Structure formats: structure tokens, C-alpha cells
Amino acid sequence: MEKNKALLRILNAINKRTPIHYQVPNAGKFIFNKIVPYIFIYRVPDTGKKDKMIADLAKTENASIVCKEDEFALEEWIKPIAESLAQEFGACLLIETWISESNQKDDILLHVGQKDILPLAEYFERNIRMETAELSVAISKDLQIPKPENLPSLFSKKYLQNKQILLLGISIKKRYIDYEENILPLLMRTYRETLAKSLSRLFFEFLRVYTHLNATAQKINVHQELTPMMNEIDDALAQESKKFDFLLMVTPLNAHEAWLQFKKDKYWKTPKFLYRPMHVDPDLVKRRLYNLRIEDIYDPTMAYIFRDKRTELDSMITMLADRGKEDFLHGSLQVFGNVSEKLYNSALALLMMTEPETTSSKNEEWIGPSEFAKMAKEEVKFLQQQNQEFNCPIRIREDISGVMVNRGALNISKEYKLTKSRAKALIQHEIGTHVVTYFNGRMQPLNLFSLGVPGYEELQEGLAVLSEYIVDGLNNDRLRIIAARVIAVQHMLLGNSFTDTFALLVDQFGFKHETSFQIVMRVYRGGGLTKDMLYLKGIMELIEYLKENNNVHLLMMGKIRKDYLPIIKDLLQKEILIPPAITPRFMFPEYLDKWKEVKTKASVFKLTH
């Protein structure tokens, strides 16, 4: 009688599409955080010992059933529930997971007993392989309906065919437990996160292909909110990130004075750079970072994002502690990467196919920091027409070189001067790209998208440089500087001194002395910073992205990187993230032909004049 009442409650919840949690005392738990046409099933074997990895995996799903087989007749409950979901949505997908027998060869074996589910199983297998190469996966085409060893079948094959119910079995080789029954936490996490991410994509594919839901209904049904713990960790990471500004801390305070002294020394004596004092204790920052309980977050996407950011902050604070030492360069290679052979050859080719700096700009109108600041304020007013909350503090400073965006503020050196035509392009680079993505990131529920996900610089700088091209401001001189940065980084990595690299740019590639100094200063600052090679790398990657007809507007939603895009799309589908709030000028319809031109040219070499 009690069972009938409980089952009726669940069926009514499905009919009304209202979430329901139901606990069968000491036997099992039904969880429907959302009413969706799929259920994750885990029957705990008669031994009564629950597998932690599978139990934790169940917690990542919108709908799951975890029960003790010897105390609960699941087959009596699952049939009416699955039928109700199939009637409601047009089809129902059940995923039953269990621990394999010891003789299973692959880490993950997908069991298929119905012809109709084979395409889904193959899609699932591809996603697991794409997610991690560490786990082996295969498909077993079973003659019978999949089920764990020594447990009864939940359905007959004939029953499933008649009811539009699909059942996929997953048997797991328990490689994350050693011979002494100790858990191997990193390997267990790999299993759980790989399966959780792949299941999320599998369920969405099932909704799209097998059910009669439209796109809007799909979004409603996969909607997932940030938990209090996710918000807490995001806030904590943001607080630690805001305690130091990495680029300001590695930018010399005396860049202009150092240039004057270097010129006075006839370009042969390595300049001495001064930096801001460290105002944070690296050990305390690291302690706070690793006290965050990221491992308790069951959503694999969010856990990955947070761990990734924590690792980056750890590396950056270590680099700041190592300013002026050899270890600074090692940290830079970890955070920003190395120069590939392809990138170096591309930079070399750009320099060889373009002429050195000309004097034509002498005839152009030059402006100083005040006039440039005025142009920037006009651009801010233009963008505020889309959203009045948009803002960008603009400061003229003595302690920086050139221009720099810092947490949505535009900083301009008091010594800075440029041509008016160049200023138009730089406005799109700094405000249209860096400030707009900062603002759009702030509109997201996660701080990480305004502060920057780890490794965002490559895509960000590539987009910023391409914005210059879109508004007709990317000339050969600018492309040569971007290419020269790659050459300078590679030369520095080979062990050459500041003065050697300076001489290389002047003598071999025809750069003017002050231009060469600025390029080399940026590369050698702090002890060796490889970040500047990302400008050319980023624009080359972005051109490839455009050639594949990908959505460029998606790149404006925050400070993201290219391999985060599948994660971004997942979070947009779950409605955790929102589309960009502000569209920069260079993405307005009037520039559509220029974007088409980039796709047609499809090469950074064809952007030269």
C-alpha cells in the first residue's frame, strides 16, 4: 500500500513536471532534480558495499535511482516510471551502471542490447575518447538486455521495443581501487568527471534526436543552477585573484627612464628595471587556494574550471615571488607556453615578406595621452547606448609603458604618443575587446569570466589584433611588431642576452632602436615573459576558427579560451551563462564585409598590405 502511494506521488510529479526526491528507508533513493526523459540507475549489489565513484556520479545527474538490490525490487518501480516518461516526452533513456567482473579488458564497456540505441552508444564512446585518453572504452553488442552479473533484468527485450524505452549498460573496471582496497583519488576523479561530462552530452543528444522536445524545452529541462558551494569557491578564487595584478607587477616602473639610459649607454649595457614591491605573501595565498574544497563539487565542468583557475593562480603567484630569477622563466613557460616551430617560422616569414618601418607616418597627425583618452571616452559613451552600466575608467599614469587594460580600466602612459589612424584601431583593441569582454564577463554569474579563465590571453589577444584589421588599422608595421615579439621570445629562450636580442631586431630585421627596445623590454621583463608570442599565435588560431564557420560573437561573452568553448556551450545550454551583453563596434553590421574578407583570405600572411 505504502509503495503504491509513493509510486503515485512520483508519477504525479512526472505528469506535472515538478522535481521530487523520494527516500525508501534503508533501501533506496529516487532523485528527480528536473523531470527529464532519462534516468541514471545504480543497483548496489548484495554485498551492500556501495561504490563511491558510481554513487558520486549519480549525484551529478538530474534524475537518478540508487538502491540496494537485496532490499528493493526496482523492476516493480522502474517500469511505470519509464513508461510515464516515454509517454510524456516520446522516449525514455535508462543508463544502468555497475562494477564489472575482474576479467573485463576495457576500463569502460558499453552494453547495447537494442539496435535503436547503437548510434547513441557510439556517440557516447566518441565523447569518452575525446575527453580523456587515459581510459579505454569499447562497445559490447549483447544478445540480451544489459544487466549486472547475478542481478535480474529490469525489462525484457520485447517490452522495451513496445514502450519506446532505451536501456544502455555501463560496466566499470574498478582500476581506481588498489590491491589493498585503497582509493586512488586522482584516477577516481578521472573516471567520474569523464563519465559525467560524456553523459551530459549523451543526454542532450538523446533529447535532440529521440524526443519531441523543441530547443526551448530542452533548455528548460537541462537547466542547472549554481550551488552555494560553487558560488563560494568562485568568490574565493576571485578574491585571491584581485589581491595582485600580475601584469602590473611584472611591468617595469621605470621603462621610459630605462630607455633613455639605454640610449645614453649606446645600446650595449643591459638596462636595470624596477618593479612594484610584493604586497602579498605567496605562502598565504597558496594555503587559502588549496583550502578550497573543489573536490566536493560533483559537477565535473565546474570542478574542472575551478581547479584550472587555482592552478593558474598558484603558478602566477610563484612567478611573482621569482621575479628577476631563472625560475620566473620556467613559470612563464608553464602559464603562457613555448614557441612552436610553426609559430616561429610564421613570424620569420612575416618579417621576410614585409618591409621595415617607413617614415610615412611622419606626415600623419600625432596625438598624446590626453587626446587618446578623449577618443577612448567617446567610445565608452558609444557602447553605453547598449547598456548604461557599461563603464571604463581611463587613467593617465607615470608608472606604466604604453597602454594597458587592468580589470576594465584603461591605463595610458604619460609618455605615450601615436598617430590618429593608429589610435582608432587601438581603441577597438583595448576597449572593444579587452574592456568589453571584461564587462560581459562581469554580467555572468561567475567571476572567472571577467577576471579570465586560465590561458584566455591567446584568444583574447588574437581577437584584439583582428579587431584592428576589421577597422582598417592593422598595417604592416603593426604585424611586424607582433611577429618580432615571437622572434624575441625564441631568442630569449635560447639563452641570448637583452642586448643580443635588441641587436638582432635592429640589425637583421630593420627595426628602429626605440621600437626594438619596447619589444625586448616586454619579453625580458621579470626574468623572461613568453606571453608576447600569444598575439601572433592567437590571430592564427582565430583565423582557423573563422574558417570553420564558428560563431565569433560567442568569443565576446567573457575572457575565455578556445578549448573552453564546449564548456561554454554546455553552460549556455544549462542557462548558467548568458549571451554577451555588449557588442563591440567592430562586430556591427557595417563591418560584415571585413569579416567575410578574413574568412576568404584565411591566412595571416594575406592580411599584409
Automatic annotation (TrEMBL):
Keywords: Carboxypeptidase, Hydrolase, Metalloprotease, Protease. Its cofactor is Zn(2+). SMART domains: DUF1704. It comes from Sphingobacterium tenebrionis. This is Tyrosine/phenylalanine carboxypeptidase domain-containing protein. InterPro entries: MATCAP. GO terms for molecular function: carboxypeptidase activity.
